[in-house]
Design goal:
alpha+beta, four-stranded antiparallel beta sheet, five-stranded antiparallel beta sheet, single chain, 30% strand
Length: 326
């Protein structure tokens, strides 16, 4: 299924612009110019689950738009995921200002197990198997492109763990550089985690500063959406309670959250304090890869990371889904 790079870039720009502009008067204050946030501010809520789904493109009359071959055009759109009373995910579209809209789109949770359970008649439970499309990953070795074979322990859904294994592949020089940069975020070695455990606050604070620097920002005070969006790009998921716990659990004097006006203050960037050398890359399927690297600095000698192809930040290239330092 083809992805539109142009559309993804527009989405990323629109989202970033929307969140950077979310300053307004605080309803609970008489002070003009105070930054405030609505409960439906999309990614501004650090506890909000966000994803991207592919939908059919329609014109202003609601008619499907097709290409010259008559095939219906599609695009990826950002959505906020909520759960109904039965725990089923409901996807609400996010508009260009970063607000959640009432409009819903079909959504299947990629992190659910490969079965869906529902209540049948008289309280009985029935299970229906989900189907997942197989895909291969293009890798580059020198100037020659090769297609990675299907991994031996292919995951049909959910995020793999650092204990999983797959087929060894090689990344292009560009992708190797991207992964290396991400794993060399200062102080990232302070915590290990699997995706199911959630992202630790103390390493998220360092990733947030690194993302701000990567995006060309200068140390300053930002509307919280700017920082939260950066974290979402880096980890491919929201960092739960980051705003609430940044000051107490972040262990980082270079970034602080001001709860009175909903802003983050970044006072300085951080100097690299460790390096990594990639030693092995395994394809785990569904755009997940297990990266093993040796480490110099930070009191560590090795890291195993689960990386996922990143569809929100094309420059970043990947998101970090799990880390095991030793």
């Amino acid at each position: 299924m083809k992805k539109s790079i142009a559309i993804l870039l527009i989405l990323a720009v629109c989202l970033t612009s929307g969140f950077a502009a979310c300053a307004k008067k605080d309803k609970g204050s008489n002070e003009e110019g105070t930054v405030a946030e609505s409960s439906n501010r999309g990614l501004n809520d650090a506890d909000t689950e966000v994803d991207f789904v592919e939908v059919e493109v329609t014109d202003k009359n609601g008619e499907k738009v097709t290409d010259k071959n008559g095939k219906v055009k599609t695009e990826e759109v950002p959505v906020v995921i909520t759960r109904d009373k039965n725990g089923k995910p409901v996807a609400h579209r996010i508009d260009k200002e970063g607000n959640t809209t009432p409009e819903t789109v079909p959504y299947s949770d990629p992190d659910d197990d490969n079965t869906t359970t529902k209540k049948g008649d008289k309280g009985k439970t029935t299970t229906k198997k989900k189907t997942t499309a197989k895909s291969t990953t293009m890798t580059t070795k020198g100037d020659e492109k090769t297609t990675a074979p299907e991994p031996t322990t292919k995951k049909t859904s959910g995020v793999p763990t650092t204990n999983d294994s797959g087929t060894k592949v090689e990344f292009s020089a560009e992708d190797q550089t991207r992964v290396k940069r991400m794993l060399e975020v200062p102080y990232l070695y302070k915590a290990s985690y699997e995706n199911a455990q959630g992202v630790p606050i103390n390493i998220a604070s360092h990733a947030a500063i690194w993302m701000a620097e990567k995006d060309g920002l200068q140390p300053s005070t930002f509307a919280s959406g700017t920082i939260v969006l950066g974290l979402f790009k880096y980890f491919g998921q929201t960092v739960v309670n980051f705003k609430a716990d940044c000051n107490s659990k972040g262990d980082n004097e270079n970034i602080k959250f001001n709860s009175t006006n909903g802003t983050f203050a970044v006072t300085g960037f951080e100097t690299a304090d460790h390096t990594v050398t990639l030693t092995s890359i395994e394809d785990l399927g569904n755009n997940y890869f297990k990266v093993t690297a040796s480490v110099s600095g930070g009191g560590k000698s090795k890291v195993v990371a689960i990386m996922q192809k990143n569809k929100l930040d094309l420059d970043l290239g990947f998101s970090v889904k799990a880390l095991k330092w030793s």
